[in-house]
Every structure is written in C-alpha cells, then in structure tokens.
Amino acid sequence: MNFTVIDMNKWERRSYFEHYMNVTRCTFSITANLNITQLLPVLRAKGLKLYPAFLYMVTKTVNAHREFRVCFNKEGELGYWEKMLPSFTFFHKDDKTFSTMWTEFSNDFDVFYQNYLDDMNRYGEVKGLSAKGNEPPNTVNVSCIPWVSFTGFNLNIYTDGRYLLPITTCGKYFEQAGEILLPVSLQVHHAICDGYHAGVFINELQEMANNCEQWLSPDPATL
Q: Coiled coil where (predicted)?
C-alpha cells in the first residue's frame, strides 16, 4: 500500500492539473459498449460470473496506469498508490438496497475470483452501506446497474471537487447484430485524465475481453 508523493516541479502534467483544479474544476464521463461476445461464453463454460470478471478487468487496467491511481492522501498530499483494490457494490434482493465491499486484488484471476467468492460468502448478507468495513484508502470504485442497458451514465459529485480516482459503472448486456455488448461508463477528473486516457482505459478493457483465454485459466479437464 505504498503511496508516492508527486514532485510538482518535475510533473509533466502540472499545468493541466492546476488549470482543471483551480480555474475550471471539472470531471467528465464517457460511455462505450464493451464487446463481450468472446468473453461471456468462456465464463459460462467455466461456471464463472461476469461481474467479478469485470471487476478484475477494471482493476488490472487501473493498476497498469499511474493516471488512474492518482489522488490526495489523508495528509492532503497529491500522489499515487502503487496498487489499487476494487471497492464494488452489490444488491440485496429482499429489501432492494445495496452495500459496498472491497476485495484483495491479485493479477492471478483465479486468486482474485476466490477472494471475491470468500468475501461474498462472508459479507454478502450484511446490510448497510459498507458490508465489510475497514476499507483501505487504496480502493477504486466500481458498480453495476444490471437492470438497464444505458447509453450514458454520469455521477454528480457535490463535494469540493478533489476526488480524483476513476469510477466505473457497467450496465445490462444486450445482443445486437449477433454480438453481445456491455455498456460501460467511466468517470474521471480532468485534472488527472484527458480523452486519451479514457480511450486507453476502454480500449484495454476491450483487449482483455478479446483475449480472455490468456487470463482465464484453462479448464483442467482440457489439459
């Protein structure tokens, strides 16, 4: 959980950061359809769930790029975490509320998937905003709205505008022209990310979906 403070005098993004924090403080969001035509059948064949696979893809992408790990620490210093963990929402069907949960991340999908299952088995029936508690500061927010295939999604955060980490939301997947598409919305702070970075994020998610068999371990029965 190492946090590296950014040296503003050497930071190539300083002028952009200062403009979008002090002159035109703003966030922006982008929504795109992730093609999961190859991913979904592989998950189903292995008896795996889409949501934890999506959490893995998002967190791995976040950890691959410093821009998605930049934030202020509790001392108010600007820097970036060495590694992020997913903090995600899940739904309670009985009372139609939701809770948040964080899970230890591993680049090994099997390990991460088991961490997810263990946490859901232990805390999945806990009600309230935070089911697990003791959430570390190096978490990135991911959520799902599985009831609608949205074409756009935007969070309106009424704070001091200093929340810098990305927020990712997926919707209900749907079929179109023989392909299975998953709407994905990414919200970022313009002080840290530009359109280029948003494009990198979405494109790398797509690459992971296209090459899912590289990170989803093969079925032992096929070995």
A: none
> CA dist 90 to 37, 78, 97, 138, Å?
24, 30, 9, 19
Given the residues 65, 189, 190, 197, the one annotated as active site: 190
Cβ contact 128:99 at 8 Å: yes
What pairing do the DSSP bridges indicate for beta strands 78-81 and 70-72?
Answer: antiparallel
Q: Is the pTM of this model over 0.90?
A: yes
**Structural domain harbouring 72:** 14-213
Q: Provide the CATH number for the domain around residue 80.
A: 3.30.559.10
The answer to whether residue 197 is catalytic is no
pLDDT of 40 higher than 70? yes
Dihedral of CA atoms 148, 151, 157, 163 in degrees, nearest 10, equals 110
Residue 45 lies in a domain: yes
Contacts of 183 (CB under 8 A, 6+ apart): 31, 32, 33, 34, 149, 150, 151, 153, 170, 171, 172, 173
154 token code pair: 């935007």
